[in-house]
C-alpha cells in the first residue's frame, strides 16, 4: 500500500548499453537496422510446460482453465459444480414491503463457497492483466524506449491506475445508489450488515480476486527478488483489510475507505505515468502529497466515528456468529488498532520519502564551488586530463540529476 517515488532516468545511451543492444540484449522494438541485421531470431519454441513456456503462454493457459468452468454450465451433470465458481452464492429473497410493493429484494451473505467464486474471478483478473499488458503497456514501452527501471515501474503504475480507476467508479456508483453520501449514519446503523446487495458482494469478491491474482503475477512478470518483499507487504495489507471488512460485516465502512484510498493511489500512479512521458511534470505529485495526508486523516476520522462512537453506542453488543454480530469491545479495539497502525505506517513511509526528496533536491540546488585547475606544463597535466581528472566534475554534473531522479523513484 505504500506508494513509491516517481522514477527517473532516460536521456542519452551509454556505450555499454549500445554494445548490449548489438549483442541482442535489448527488448523487442528498441533496436535499429544494424541491430536487426546482427541478431538472429530463434525459431525454437520452449518445451511444453517448461518455465519459459508457462511465462510466455500463461494467459492462454489461464483462459483455458476459465473456459472449463464456463463450459461446465452447459451440461446438467457439471452445472451444479460450475455455478459455484461463476455466480455469487448465498442469496436470499426478501418479500416486497409497502415501500417496495412492486418487486422483491435479492440480497446475499457470505460463506465458504465464496472461495470458489474468488478463485474463478482471480483467473479473470489474470487474463485482463495480460490483455492490458500486451495491447496497451507493451506498445507504449516500445515507443518510449524506457530503461529497465522505468519499464517495471511503468508497467506497475499502468496496471494499478487502471484497476484503481475502475474500482473508484464502481465504488462511487454503489455509494450513490445506496445513499451512503446523503446519510452517513448508514455506516454503523442497523449493524450487523450481514446482507449485501448484488453490487456490494460482487465488488468485494472482485477486490479479493484482484489482490489474490497479484501473487502469481509476481512469477509471471519475473519480479526481481529485491522487489518481492515490498510487493508482498502491500498485497498482504490489502487482503487483510478487505477480507476483514468483509468477514466482520463492516462492508459499508470498508467500501467508503477503499474508494477514498483508491482515489489517492490512482492520482499517484497516473502522475507517475505522466512523469515517465515528461520528467518536468511534477504538479501531480504535489497534489497527491496533499491528498495523501488528507486521505489518512479522513480514514482515521471515519474509522473512529463508525467503530469508536457509532458501534460503541449500539444496543446489541453481544458476540453472535449466527447473526454475524461482532460488535464487542475486543473486536472494536482490534479494528481501530489495525487501521491506526496501517495509517501510521503509511505516513512514516510517506514522510521518509518526502524528506529524502527534499534532501536530494536541496543538495542538487546547492551551489558548488569549482576550483580552477592549475595549468602546468609537462606530461603530468596532460596525463591528468587523459585520465579524466579535469573531466570528473563535468561528468558527475551531467549524470547526477538523472541518478538522483532514479534514486527517488
UniProtKB/TrEMBL annotation:
Keyword Cell inner membrane: no
Region (Disordered): 1-33, 370-409
Keyword Endoplasmic reticulum on entry: yes
Lineage, highest ranks first: Eukaryota, Metazoa, Chordata, Craniata, Vertebrata
Residue spans of biased composition, Basic residues class: 370-382
Record-annotated membrane-spanning stretches: 66-88, 118-137, 158-182, 202-220, 232-249, 255-275, 287-309, 329-351
Domain of life: Eukaryota
Keywords tagged on the record: Endoplasmic reticulum, Membrane, Protein transport, Translocation, Transmembrane, Transmembrane helix, Transport
Cell compartment(s), UniProt: Endoplasmic reticulum membrane
Family, as annotated: Belongs to the TRAM family.
One Pfam assignment: TRAM_LAG1_CLN8
TLC domain mapped to chain residues: 152-361
Compositionally skewed regions (Gly residues) per UniProt: 1-13
Coiled coil: none
Protein name in UniProt: Translocating chain-associated membrane protein 1
GO cellular component terms attached to this protein's record: endoplasmic reticulum membrane
UniProt membrane topology term: Multi-pass membrane protein
Predominant location: endoplasmic reticulum
BP GO terms, sorted: protein insertion into ER membrane; response to unfolded protein; SRP-dependent cotranslational protein targeting to membrane, translocation
Polar residues bias: start-end ranges: 387-398
Complexes and interactors: Interacts with SEC61B. May interact with Derlin-1/DERL1.
Amino acid at each position: 500500500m505504500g506508494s513509491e517515488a516517481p522514477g527517473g532516468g532516460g536521456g542519452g545511451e551509454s556505450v555499454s548499453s549500445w554494445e548490449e543492444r548489438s549483442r541482442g540484449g535489448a527488448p523487442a522494438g528498441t533496436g535499429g537496422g544494424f541491430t536487426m541485421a546482427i541478431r538472429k531470431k530463434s525459431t525454437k519454441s520452449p518445451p511444453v510446460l517448461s518455465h519459459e513456456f508457462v511465462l510466455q503462454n500463461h494467459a492462454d493457459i489461464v483462459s483455458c482453465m476459465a473456459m472449463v468452468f464456463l463450459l461446465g454450465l452447459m451440461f446438467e451433470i457439471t452445472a451444479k459444480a460450475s455455478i459455484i465458481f461463476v455466480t455469487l452464492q448465498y442469496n436470499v429473497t426478501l418479500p416486497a414491503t409497502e415501500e417496495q410493493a412492486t418487486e422483491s429484494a435479492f440480497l446475499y451473505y457470505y460463506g465458504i463457497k465464496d472461495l470458489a467464486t474468488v478463485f474463478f474471478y482471480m483467473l479473470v483478473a489474470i487474463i485482463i492483466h495480460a490483455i492490458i499488458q500486451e495491447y496497451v503497456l507493451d506498445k507504449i514501452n516500445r515507443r518510449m524506449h524506457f530503461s529497465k527501471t522505468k519499464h517495471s515501474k511503468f508497467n506497475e503504475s499502468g496496471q494499478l491506475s487502471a484497476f484503481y480507476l475502475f474500482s473508484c467508479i464502481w465504488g462511487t456508483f454503489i455509494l450513490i445508489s445506496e445513499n451512503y453520501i446523503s446519510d452517513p449514519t448508514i455506516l454503523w446503523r442497523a449493524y450487523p450488515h450481514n446482507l449485501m446487495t448484488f453490487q456490494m458482494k460482487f465488488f468485494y469478491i472482485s477486490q479479493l480476486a484482484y489482490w489474490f491474482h497479484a501473487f502469481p503475477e509476481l512469477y509471471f512478470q519475473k519480479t526481481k527478488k529485491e522487489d518481492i518483499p515490498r510487493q508482498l507487504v502491500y498485497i498482504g495489507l490489502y487482503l487483510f483489510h478487505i477480507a476483514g471488512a468483509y468477514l466482520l460485516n463492516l462492508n459499508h465502512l470498508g467500501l467508503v475507505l477503499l474508494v477514498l484510498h483508491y482515489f489517492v493511489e490512482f492520482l499517484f500512479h497516473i502522475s507517475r505515468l505522466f512523469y515517465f512521458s515528461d520528467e518536468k511534470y511534477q504538479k501531480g505529485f504535489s497534489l497527491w502529497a496533499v491528498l495523501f495526508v488528507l486521505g489518512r486523516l479522513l480514514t482515521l476520522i471515519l474509522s473512529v466515528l463508525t467503530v469508536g462512537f457509532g458501534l460503541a453506542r449500539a444496543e446489541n453488543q453481544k458476540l453472535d456468529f449466527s447473526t454475524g454480530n461482532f460488535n464487542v469491545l475486543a473486536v472494536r479495539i482490534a479494528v481501530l488498532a489495525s487501521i491506526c497502525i496501517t495509517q501510521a505506517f503509511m505516513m512514516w513511509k510517506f514522510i521518509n520519502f518526502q524528506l529524502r526528496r527534499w534532501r536530494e533536491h536541496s543538495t542538487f540546488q546547492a551551489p558548488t564551488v569549482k576550483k580552477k585547475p592549475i595549468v602546468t606544463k609537462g606530461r603530468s597535466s596532460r596525463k591528468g586530463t587523459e585520465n579524466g581528472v579535469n573531466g570528473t566534475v563535468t561528468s558527475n554534473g551531467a549524470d547526477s540529476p538523472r541518478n538522483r531522479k532514479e534514486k527517488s523513484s
